[in-house]
Known about the structure:
Blueprint lengths: L3 H11 L3 H6 L8 H5 L6 H6 L16 E6 L7 E6 H5 L15 E4 L8 H12 L2 E3 L8 H14 L3 E4 L1 H11 L3 H6 L2 E4 L6 H10 L4 E4 L1 E3 L3 E5 L8 E4 L3 E6 L13 E7 L10 E10 L11 E6 L4 E4 L2 E4 H8 L5 E12 L2 E10 L6 H12 L3 H7 L2 E10 L15 E3 L3
Amino acid sequence: MNRIDDLSSAVEYAKQAPYYRETLPTQAVGEIEDFQALPFLDNKTYRQNTPPSSNALCARDPTGCFVFSSGGTTSKPRFILRDFADIDDQYEYFQGLDIGPKDTAINLFMPGTWGVFSTTNMALSRLGCRIIPQGGLRLDEEAMEQIRNYIRQFGANCLVGMPSTIVTVAAYLKEDEEAKAKVNKIYCLGEKVFEATLKHLREIFHDAVVKSAYGCMESAAIGYQCAGKTLSDYHVFPYQYVEIVDSETGDVLPDGEFGEIIISTLKRRLIPLVRYKTGDIGRLTNDDCACGKQSQVLHVKGRSQDMVVSASLHVEVEQMRNVIAAFPECSDAFQIRVDNTHHRDSIEIVVEAESFSTDLAARIKAKCMAEIQDLEGEIQTGRIHSFEVTCVPKNSIERVRATGKMKRIIDLRT
């Protein structure tokens, strides 16, 4: 899809930010090839050039905005600035659910500086529905009973939250036919909705329509689901421009081929993005849709090849490398394995060791608990099924025969 006028305008606007004035060519973008020749923006560079480190990526004075944080470890939070006008469009995320004044939604996102809890309340208010800002910080017996009562007493019919949170709520309501029958709309964000999860939710909430959006904190939502889209297929918002590139060469790939998702924002926002590397894998198609939309369809295959996203956890390969480096008996050979157990994620860290005592795995696990943000809490609430560390002898982890390299992440979720 050639949108050269939109891209040219977006690039010229981005040059109001000092970083882009220095890195982008002075001449205007006239052809799509000119745009595709522009440099990529990666997450490390983004962090170095946004507050609190620098204002270099800001197209104007960073006021009139929210400051959110997301992911990372407790020592390296990611700060994201979102201006109010940028958030004002977020109600469009819910198009596939047709939410309106007749609906009552329970917001189960995590409150705090992650931001989605606050922006979801703002978006739902634009749709005119009744909002119950419960939050998903606590999922104990008392909190679950509160949610059940909201459904029964206020007729709450829409659950909004991360898939792992909603699965936990579904398990609690499984035997409550009255409450289950009222829930007919579910909106998910923050994790990929796998087919098994979708099937499980539909088995419990028989009449529920389940939809999600795709995006990242830096760009806000990139795609949404109409009534006909489900699982990992999304219409691309008209104010976002998506490219699929070969992650090694940077070449733009043709429609239908999987590669890294690159996002450029076309709106005049506080921090414009020009060719931002999401780290996610996907492909673009131009399939006809029953809803009549002419936008591109983005199929998201998975999150970053260097990170496992589960519930609110972001378990990074580099993060695990630093944890394991604290144990001299361990080598740098390790693998993060994630699977789906009883509709919740189970994570196993497999580590090769030169020699190990019987408590080595327990000591590594304890360090993970201390250093991986939200890990202990997600286990306690049941949003993830389990987190285990297994130590194995040297050369036990399978290597790729042609290169001798090992896959750092094995994702068996379906």
